[in-house]
Specification:
globular; single chain; purine nucleosidase activity; EC 3.2.-.-; Inosine-uridine Nucleoside N-ribohydrolase, Chain A; alpha/beta; EC 3.2.2.1; glycosidase; about 15% strand; two-stranded antiparallel ribbon; Ribo_hydro-like
Length: about 325
């Protein structure tokens, strides 16, 4: 069976770059990339993705999309990912230009094409603004989606920015509400299983000690070290939770997801304390289409995939 084409929608932070590394090492490098504000500004996110693709040897066009949420001002996560969004990772001196077509327009055209030529898989790693803008005026385009794997939200009410909200959803709750209300083949990878998948400092030290040194080793280690520093600074133990790499791993190997909740998911778009919270429509009361939310994972299987990806990539670059 021919492998579907893959589009990655990303806000260009450290874990986004690691997710692209997982895809590259697993034979599922993206065919197209769209960028969105989020971890950093849209311009910085686009530069970061161009640099990441160059380091990983991925040849895919990058289309810049939305630079702000549907409502209100953009937030960012520079405190987590560093001022440049990649923890100061070394970059190639020369990068290709961005593709000329706007990211939202490209998404629409790619989905229109997919409706006749075969479904397109989408991995969404940032705020869902690009997808919401592309689909709210043409919801029929969801017929062009094969799988829509989203990193975002919570399944047990544990946020990573507020007590209730995860960053990608909080950055544009209105966009998330639009996307999750569509009858798309959606798989949500929320924050809690990412915490379950936390990689320890010892595991990370071991893989980089084994891996061949070179440009990719330096790049990937800088990403990892940034998240280790931040985790310790925020009072955690040495290591980090890997949200975007876990979402990429679920796309590559669906059996990593061991527990799935099938239910509609609502997004709190108001509220003083719970804006951006995701809530299961269970028992169903709000008429939302059921989606698949990952609520349990095979942790050893994920770690083997992620750590193996680092070793394989370092071996060849």
């Amino acid at each position: 069976m021919m492998q579907r084409q893959l589009l990655v929608d990303t806000d260009g932070g450290t874990d986004d770059a690691m997710a692209l590394a997982v895809l590259a090492a697993s034979g599922r490098a993206p065919d197209f990339v769209t960028t969105v504000f989020g971890n950093v500004s849209l311009g910085q996110a686009s530069d970061n993705i161009l640099a990441t693709l160059a380091v990983l040897g991925i040849d895919a066009p990058v289309h810049a999309g939305a630079d702000r949420p549907l409502i209100g001002a953009a937030i960012n996560a520079a405190d987590v990912h560093g001022d440049d969004g990649l923890g100061g990772a070394p970059r190639p001196a020369h990068l290709p230009p961005l593709a000329s077509k706007d990211g939202v327009d490209f998404l629409r055209s790619a989905l229109r094409r997919a409706m006749t030529e075969g479904p397109l898989d989408i991995l969404a790693l940032g705020p869902l603004t690009n997808l919401a803008l592309a689909l709210r005026t043409e919801p029929a385009l969801v017929a062009g989606i094969g799988r829509l794997v989203i990193m975002g939200g919570t399944s047990r009410g544990r946020g990573n920015v507020t007590g209730a909200a995860e960053f990608n959803i909080l950055a544009d709750p209105e966009a998330a509400a639009i996307v999750l209300a569509l009858a798309a083949p959606t798989e949500l990878v929320p924050w809690e299983p990412c915490v379950d998948a936390t990689l320890s400092g010892a595991e990370l030290d071991a893989v980089f000690a084994r891996a061949r040194t070179g440009a990719r080793h330096a790049f990937l280690k800088a990403l990892v070290d940034q998240l280790r520093r931040v985790t310790i600074a925020y009072g955690g133990t040495d290591g980090f939770a890997p949200p975007d790499p876990l979402a990429a791993a679920v796309l590559v190997d669906p059996e990593i997801a061991t527990t799935i909740v099938r239910a509609g998911v609502a997004v709190e778009c108001g509220g003083l304390y719970a804006r951006g919270a995701t809530i299961f429509d269970e028992p169903p009361k709000w008429g939302l289409p059921p989606i698949s939310t990952v609520d349990g994972i095979d942790v050893p299987r994920f770690k083997a995939l992620f750590l193996g990806a680092i070793e394989r990539l370092c071996e060849t670059g």
